[in-house]
Amino acid sequence: MTPLPKPAARPAFDFDRAPFLVIWEVTRACALACVHCRADAIPCRDTHELTTEEGFRLIDQVRAIGGPSTSSGQAPPPLFVLTGGDPMRRPDLAQLVGYASSAGLTVALTPSGTAAATRARLAELKDAGLSRVAVSLDGPTPEAHDAFRRVRGSHAWTMRIIESTLDLGLPLQINSTISKLTLPYLEAMADRMMHLPVTLWALFFLIQTGRGASLDQISAEECERVLNFLYDLSLTSPFGIKTTEAPHYQRIVWERDHARLAQGLPTHSVERKRQLRAPRSVGDGNGFVFVDHVGNICPSGFLPVQRGNVRTMNLADVYRTDDVFTRLRDPNALMGNCGRCRFRAICGGSRSRAFAATGAVMASDPLCAYVPNEVTEPIVNHA
Ligand code: SF4
Known about the structure:
The protein is of the alpha/beta class. It has a single domain, classed as Aldolase class I (TIM Barrel). The protein has helices at residues 52-65, 93-102, 119-128, 142-149, 154-167, 186-194, 220-234, 249-262, 268-271, 315-321, 323-328, 336-340, 351-358; strands at residues 13-14, 21-25, 69-70, 73-74, 79-83, 107-109, 132-136, 172-178, 200-205, 240-244, 288-291, 297-298. It has a nine-stranded mixed sheet with strand order 10-9-8-7-6-5-2-11-12. It has a three-stranded antiparallel sheet with strand order 1-3-4, with no helix packed on it. Helix 7 links the parallel strand 9 (200-205) and strand 10 (240-244). The site of iron/sulfur cluster (SF4) has 13 residues, from helix 12.
């Protein structure tokens, strides 16, 4: 391993001013009952959901927040993701996509694998300005996927969404959950990704919250193996790879990149695919903000600590000044191993998992196998 470079003064991408991603849970209604569901999705729409007009006002707020600060100025406004539940359960979805797209936002959608996501409906959303579809695939076979989703036929609906998305020429993101239940399928899933024209493979590392509280998560050692497997895959995959709630992938990338540089080999960073991706780790409340179906503002859907509501408060004000949000962006407020770790500024551990495990948002992430020796200056940039 080559000597570590001196830390730069500031990260190249600063999330204090604005997030990279705003996720809006447009509804909690969903026909599925997935075993890992953080939202504890319900069969019918909540009568207190944000209305169409309130959705428009939220979109105005997202547009007004602007982009994160970068070393060369200001990035574009946040990527706006409409999620659920199943967002297809909202009849005004095309209106919301159209309004957001007209406001200059890049809009992505995460439909559930159900019959509601027809080709005609996706075509309508594309015409309204939709930029990307992200769909969950949690097993390499129909049986494995349907067992995880707890609905027979969900795999077939998911494949129909994938075909429609590709047929419409929309970029496709596949989301897969990593847990004890799905870990045995990792290599087979990677093989499937290599045979699908996906733009991004996003791996969600289980947080034991909502219905996911009853599922087993992988061990820290297994996580280390998964992250190294993903790094190896990233060197040859034609698609981008992203981890959610496993920011220690940034540590693996940093360590493996430096090892490759020492051997004169091209690095992950050089080859990284950047389609609609942040150039650094995005974490709960740190580049990321979640608005739930009734307007509550949280650092993440997996960290259900409500810090305000868009019906009465401004999203930018809460994101920038709320004490939990500002603490989540302060690597020196971290505790335990994460607080001592030199990777705390580019990783920082999953705040959702720390909260789910201990009740403390700044505690150490129990899914990380790295044991720091002593408190050192944090590394703040990859390159
Ligand atoms: S100890 Fe914490 S900050 Fe360091 S690599 Fe692990 S999760 Fe990240």
